[in-house]
Structure formats: structure tokens, C-alpha cells
Write a structure and sequence with these properties.
The complex is a heterodimer of chains A (162) and B (552). Chain A has 162 residues and is an alpha/beta fold. Chain A has 5 helices and 8 strands. The longest helix of chain B has 22 residues. Classes of the chains: A alpha/beta (162), B alpha+beta (552). The interface between A and B is large, with 36 and 42 residues.
């Protein structure tokens, strides 16, 4: 799955691991992994014992209290968009930035071209796109609008401060 | 009114090109239908029963004459020669071609208009009092704040995919002509004990399937805090609002479920983080935007006019119109004049291209080039000199825009209903005609006085039937259209939700039933008592008893 950082496709060093990988007889891939928060909490002991890096994937249904209190534990936090109509991830990203999170904030899930600029504006630093959805042409979506009225997590200031 | 600067213009121009490309990719099969659906909704384009419907934003109801002429041109060129004003003071075209919509948007951008966020689960057009800036009872003109909210909410990156649509209204003072109590957020300009002007904030009002009166979340909000506080409310809603059921997704359900106090705590906690950030509104910005809404250069000799009194004495038809369709202006010698979009046996809120052109001409000649749309689907010329009223009336009469029925029973607010709308359970337009036929006698209607009648074709309540003094709701019973009648609703300062009078009535009995309701009112009213006041005094029982009395 293509990963965008700074509006460019880059090599992805992380593997997104679903809960099924933790079932009996299943195997967890080697290397740095991202696991859903619920899985992370359920398998906390074995995961912290890993030598490779472990990060979490969260979504709007998760209770984020503990995550927000322990942000420095995670080099990366993936925020999942289970459906394109579900806009909670935009607010969650802003909360992470506001709480001082400095790691990678990655968007995963149902992400289309039209949301790329909004994701960037809300503080996402990487965007993972499905193979079927991705086209090189998508990258031009970032530049379609050259200015915005309101401030967000990016460097755009509110229009009355510009 | 507000004039675009380079930033505003560039934004709408770029938006047009963005949408043009999205349409191209959809038509070329590169963009899946579902993805395009979300994009076209963000640009006000629905697919209706017969054709796409394009909803153009009329920011807080303001239109200038250049814009009206452009809208007339669009109606003529891209549609069937008419358009429809909505209860959000927007304008809908019912027959545009999907592939021509980018061209229409480009036409709109050329006159500082757009259709951004007129649909979709985002922050919609902010509405306000149609008398903003020209009525004596307001504390401050609410339009500058509407414009500030328009800018802040346009293409807001965080709030484009809320659980559900989000509507904000602002009233300029204690008299609420903007239905603020039935909005997701209702703001009223208030003055606190220290004499400072700010906003009372209500949250969680709304109509639709679960009508709710908004609750006060903050008695006084300083102007500088307007945007940070709105952002705090909407962030909490975006994170906590239900997404599993679209009928439970509005903020009113969240506020009801949590209770207003718990909701307020969350908002305040959020607000603490943001109130001293970039969102703090500089008062210089408020002043900059206010400058666009300065009072016009009114003629100080206007009050010396004697011709109006003479015309009123001479011409009964003119006097009737004057009494019903004009309102006192805060400047002596001027009146606020309505153009009624509720003519006899025509759909409420519809206008032809010729009528749009004519309103533009009237505005240029008599009202500083501006026209306002009201949330009851009429138009207003806000600044007409007394000496010009007779001429205005004559022109309006010629154009079938002078029916003297503002605020009366035949000034119905009606959605397009089952004839046009795919969501509707029942038709509305035929019922409106039936009521118009029954209550054709103008003297009788005038004698009934202020009476707000709202009719919706389904429980989505686009025509706000819950807050009509009399509300009519179309329901489907085994494939037939039936109508449920409610009494006692109000969207003014004493907002209330109507109560159902009894079992629903068949489509051919609506006007007769209404007649019975009116008869109870007429028998019981005190002199000059409005329907709604009589209802409050005598209650539902006498109405119910008479309407459902067994036929002997």
C-alpha cells in the first residue's frame, strides 16, 4: 500500500498487523509493527518484549485517555478511518498534536483523494492509501486550494492574521 | 453587504476548478459513484427524483442585484426558467445537468457566489434575521458575525465529515426572527450587566424526526471567543456524536443523551485549550467585516413625504398590502417591504427568471441594490422610501409578488414534497393548493391575522412543521398520503413544538380540518388575540373535541 510522506510516495518500514495475527497458530510478522489499540492492550506483555518497534492504530471508538497520557511510548500512531464518512480521525489528529505528540501520525483506512489536503491540515504526517485507490495523479489534490480561511494544525494562519 | 477580496475570490475560483476535475473524473469512470456522491454533496448537488438539484448558498439571506440577475440567467440557460428559495435562505435549481454544474459554479463564482457546504454532513449556511441592520429592536447587526462564521466554516478541514449536517443561526437581539432555538447552535446577540455585547449560546435544538428546543450552554460569550467556542462545541460533537444511525446523529441527540451540564463540561474543557490561540477573533477583524454592513446613506428628507398617506387613503388594495407586507424601518421615512413568494396556487418559494430580474431592478431602483431571502421563503426589500412604496407595490403586483399575505395562513412554508423529493412520504403542493382554495377570501385571512402554517412531506421536517402555529406532516399509510396536524408550535422567542391534535386525516380532508381548527379559534379568541395566544390560553381540548366530533 503506497505511503505518502511530504506529498511523496516513500518506502514503508511498518507493517500493519491485525488482531488475527495474534490468534493461536498465527504468526506475527517480523520487523516494526502497528497493531490495533485493543490488541496492543490485550497482548501488552509479549509486545513490549519485542525488540522491534511497536506502534498502535486507534479509531474513534477507542478510549484514548491512556494513550494521550503515554504518547511518548509510541514512535507512530495510526488513526483509522473505517469509512470515508467517519470524520472523527481529523479531530483525533488535532488532539494528538495539541497534546504535544511528536511522532508520526498516520492516516489509514478509507482515504480518498478529496481528503488528502484536509488530513495534512489536521496534522497527519503520513497517509496510507489502498492499492486500488491510489493513482499518481492523486498527489495533485494537495495543491488544488492555495489558501484557507481558518487556522488548523498546519502553518496556515486564520485569514484575519494573514 | 460583504464584498469578496482576492482571498475569497481565489478560493471560490479554485473550488470551481477542483469540482470541474472531480466531475470529469466521475464521468470518465475514474471516480467511484460513492466517492463522487460525497464530493457533489459538498458542492450542493443532490440527485433528486427527476434530475440533479443544485443548491446555491445565499449567505445569511443576502443577495445583490448582480447576483439575482446571474441567478435569473442560470435559471434561463441551464434550467427550466425558475428556481426555489429554501428555508435556509438558499436558492435551488431543480433541473441542472450534472455535466453542466461546473459551468454553473463558474458563473456563480463570477458574481461572488458558490454552493460550498449547502449540503453534506458539514457546517451549512448560517441564517439570521431578515431585518438585520434595519430593525429598531436589535442590539447589533448580526450579519458581520454570520460572515465571520461563513469564512471560518468554509472548507474547514476538521469538520467536513461530521456525524450529520450542522446548522447555525444568529438573532440580533431579544426578538428572535431567526428560529435560533431550533438550530444545532443558536446564537443571540445580548448585552451583559457590564454593558458588553456578546452572544447567548444555545445548543442542541433541531427539528426532523426528534424535534428539540435548544438548551443554553453559555449565557454570555465574548465576541473574541466566538470562533474558539464554536470550534470547541463542534469538536466535541465530531468526536462524540453518534455515527451508527443517521437519525440519531444530530448534536441534539448527543446533548440529550449526555445532559446539557455534562456536555458543557466537555466543551469548556476543550475550549480552555483553544480560546487563546489563533482562533481568538481580533476586534479589528470584527470592525473590518462590520464596515461592509454599515447603514446606507439614508435620505434625511424621506420622512417629509406626504404622498404615502395620500395613497393609503386613496387605494384600498395598496393599503392592505402596506399593512400586511411592510414593516417599520428603524429610519424614519423608510419601510421594509416584502415580496411574497406565496402566490395563489403556485408552489411556495418558487421564482421565475423574470421575477428574479425584476427583483434586481427594484432593488437597484428603490433599495440600495440588495434583496434578502427569509427563512419563511419570501423576499425582502429592506430599505424602501415611503414615497417609493406605491411604485414598488405596483411593480410587485404586476409580477404576482404582492399577495398581501405575509404572516397569514396562506403564507405557508412548504417543502417540495413527494412531487419532487425522493425522501418525501407524501405530496405537499396539492394540499397547499387545497388550503389556498379554501382560504381564498383575503378579508377572512386578514381577519385571522398572524398565523404560521408549515407543511412538510416527511418527518425530516424541511418545512419545520413542528414550529408552525399549525403544522401539517405528510405520512404514508399503506401507499396513501395522510396528514397529521399539530397545533401550538412557534419558532420565535417563545419557541415551542406543536402537539399532535389527533389521528391523521385523508388528503381530501386537510383544508376542511383546518377550517374547523380556525373556527374554534374564531369562536374563542379575544379581540386582537393571535391564534397561537388563543391556543395557549384555551389548550388543545376544545380543538380536538370540535375537529373530531362525530358527524350527526
Amino acid at each position: 500500500m503506497p505511503l505518502l510522506i511530504n506529498r511523496e510516495v516513500v518506502t514503508d518500514n511498518w507493517t500493519l498487523v491485525k488482531n488475527e495475527a495474534f490468534e493461536e497458530n498465527a504468526s506475527i510478522p517480523a520487523g516494526d509493527i502497528i497493531v490495533p489499540l485493543t490488541t496492543y492492550l490485550a497482548h501488552n506483555e509479549s509486545l513490549t518484549a519485542r525488540t522491534e518497534q511497536v506502534s498502535i492504530q486507534i479509531n474513534g471508538d477507542d478510549d484514548l485517555t491512556a494513550v494521550l497520557e503515554n504518547l511518548d511510548q509510541f514512535p507512530l500512531i495510526a488513526i483509522d478511518f473505517p469509512a470515508f464518512r467517519d470524520g472523527r480521525g481529523f479531530s483525533i489528529a488535532r488532539l494528538l498534536v495539541r497534546e504535544g505528540y511528536k511522532g508520526e501520525i498516520r492516516a489509514t483506512g478509507d482515504i480518498g483523494r478529496d481528503r488528502l489536503a484536509y488530513l495534512e491540515r489536521c496534522g497527519f504526517t503520513s497517509i496510507q492509501i489502498d492499492d486500488e485507490t491510489y493513482t499518481p495523479e492523486m498527489l495533485s489534490a494537495f495543491d488544488e486550494m492555495s489558501n484557507y480561511y481558518q487556522s488548523a494544525t498546519d502553518n496556515v494562519r486564520a485569514v484575519y492574521h494573514q | 453587504m460583504y464584498q469578496y477580496n482576492e482571498v475569497d475570490q481565489k478560493l471560490v475560483d479554485e473550488r470551481v476548478e477542483q469540482y470541474r476535475d472531480q466531475t470529469r473524473r466521475f464521468l470518465a469512470g475514474e471516480l467511484p459513484e460513492d466517492d463522487f456522491l460525497a464530493l457533489r454533496l459538498m458542492n450542493g448537488l443532490y440527485v433528486q427524483r427527476h434530475a440533479p438539484m443544485l443548491r446555491v448558498a445565499g449567505p445569511y439571506g443576502m443577495y445583490n442585484s448582480t447576483q439575482l440577475r446571474k441567478l435569473a440567467h442560470i435559471a434561463r440557460t441551464y434550467d427550466k426558467g425558475y428556481a426555489h428559495f429554501t428555508t435556509r435562505t438558499n436558492l435551488q435549481f431543480n433541473w441542472p445537468k450534472l455535466e453542466q454544474v461546473p459551468d454553473i459554479l463558474a458563473e456563480l463564482a463570477s458574481v461572488q457566489m458558490h454552493s460550498i457546504q449547502t449540503s453534506g454532513n458539514c457546517i451549512r449556511n448560517t441564517t439570521t434575521d431578515q431585518f438585520a441592520g434595519v430593525i429598531a429592536d436589535e442590539i447589533e447587526d448580526p450579519r458581520p458575525y454570520c460572515e465571520i462564521i461563513r469564512q471560518w466554516s468554509s472548507l474547514h478541514p476538521e469538520f467536513a465529515y461530521l456525524p450529520r449536517k450542522f446548522k447555525i443561526a444568529i438573532a440580533g437581539g431579544p426578538t428572535d426572527r431567526a428560529a435560533t432555538q431550533v438550530h444545532d447552535i443558536g446564537l443571540s446577540i445580548v448585552k451583559n450587566d457590564a454593558g458588553e455585547v456578546g452572544f447567548e449560546v444555545l445548543v442542541g435544538g433541531g427539528l426532523g424526526r426528534t424535534p428539540v428546543i435548544g438548551k443554553q450552554i453559555r449565557p454570555f460569550l465574548a465576541k473574541e471567543d466566538l470562533l474558539s467556542y464554536l470550534e470547541a462545541i463542534i469538536r466535541v460533537y465530531n468526536l462524540k456524536g453518534r455515527r451508527d444511525n443517521k437519525y440519531k446523529a444530530r448534536i441534539k441527540i448527543l446533548v440529550q443523551a449526555m445532559g446539557i451540564d455534562a456536555f458543557r463540561e466537555l466543551v469548556d474543557a476543550e475550549w480552555e485549550h483553544t480560546r487563546n490561540t489563533d482562533l481568538k477573533l481580533p476586534l479589528t477583524e470584527v470592525e473590518r467585516v462590520k464596515a461592509f454592513f454599515k447603514p446606507f446613506d439614508y435620505d434625511s428628507n424621506a420622512s417629509n413625504d406626504t404622498s404615502l398617506a395620500q395613497k393609503l387613503a386613496e387605494d384600498d388594495a395598496f393599503r392592505t398590502w402596506y399593512e400586511r407586507n411592510t414593516v417599520e424601518h428603524k429610519v424614519a421615512g423608510y419601510r421594509i417591504a416584502y415580496a411574497s413568494l406565496k402566490p395563489y396556487l403556485k408552489p411556495a418559494g418558487d421564482v421565475t427568471d423574470a421575477q428574479l430580474d425584476l427583483m434586481a431592478d427594484l432593488a437597484d431602483k428603490y433599495s440600495f441594490g440588495e434583496v434578502r431571502a427569509t427563512h419563511n421563503q419570501n423576499l425582502v426589500l429592506a430599505d424602501v422610501k415611503n414615497s417609493d412604496l406605491y411604485s414598488v407595490w405596483q411593480v410587485l403586483t404586476e409580477a404576482n409578488l404582492a399577495r398581501p399575505n405575509i404572516g397569514t395562513l396562506t403564507d405557508m412554508t412548504v417543502c417540495p414534497g413527494g412531487d419532487f423529493c425522493a425522501l418525501a412520504n407524501a405530496k405537499t403542493l396539492g394540499i397547499a393548493d387545497q388550503i389556498n382554495r379554501k382560504f381564498e377570501d383575503m378579508d377572512y385571512v386578514h381577519d385571522l391575522g398572524d398565523l404560521k402554517l408549515n407543511m412538510s412531506g416527511c418527518i425530516n421536517a424541511c418545512s419545520h412543521h413542528h414550529v408552525g402555529h399549525i403544522g401539517i406532516l405528510g405520512v404514508d399509510k399503506k401507499g396513501e398520503d395522510w396528514y397529521q396536524i399539530t397545533l401550538g408550535g412557534d419558532d420565535g422567542s417563545e419557541a415551542a413544538l406543536g402537539k399532535v391534535i389527533g389521528k391523521s386525516v385523508a388528503s381530501d380532508e386537510v383544508a376542511d380540518t383546518l377550517q374547523k381548527v380556525i373556527e374554534v379559534y374564531v369562536q374563542n379568541r379575544f379581540e386582537n388575540e393571535r391564534f397561537i395566544d388563543t391556543f395557549h390560553r384555551i389548550g388543545m381540548a376544545p380543538f380536538k373535541e370540535y375537529v373530531y366530533a362525530p358527524v350527526n
